[in-house]
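Sequence in, structure out.
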Amino acid sequence: MSQQMIFVNLPVNDLDASKKFFTELGYTINPQFSDEKAASVVISDTIFVMLLTKPFYATFTKKEIADATTTSEVLVCLSAESREKVDELVDKAIAAGGTASGPTQDHGFMYGRAFDDLDGHTWEVMWMDPAAVEGQG
């Protein structure tokens, strides 16, 4: 059975600035699926973020495009290998121009922080103790 993939499509105001932001977090841009209207950010082998200029994004929907700085349209959550990796990614995002979003969540077996990217999309980053995932925690 082939592995399922996810492509998160996000409207952005400034494609070049958004590409720079995500590369500063350590992700790469796949030039094969990028041009002046869109950029494919490779998060992992199965997770991709398509950054689309707002006019290009509008060609895929008849709905009004949400202003993510004032309206929540999606919460994207990424897992991390450890508490330290959560902090590392969120700290990189803030250093790259993002903003902290909400308080740190520390439940012992689960730890998370969040940031808003340059366009206001909220990204949650979380770690969960593997023993808790397996029902042992």
